[in-house]
Amino acid sequence: MESKQLSFADHTIVTDMLFETKAAIKDLSTALSEATSPQVRTFLETELMTAIGQHEQIYTFLQNRGIYDAYNIPEQLQKDITYAQAALDM
User: Which Pfam family, any one of them, does this sequence belong to (predicted)?
Assistant: First the structure.
């Protein structure tokens, strides 16, 4: 599968989306554990599952393009340093 290289701006946006979905998962999980209304719980469960699915899609998108690899920490740290240096040089 051939994929187009992401621009620096696109990389920044999609990485931010990954982190935001992770935060949404945490927030929805917390809200779900506090909810007492069955209707609210059902709503939060649906939203939580949607957020988990979105996180998986975004992670897979990044992983398939070689941008993010949670299973190779040393390589990922080097990529992060490279991206950070590129941002500082702009």
Answer: Coat_F
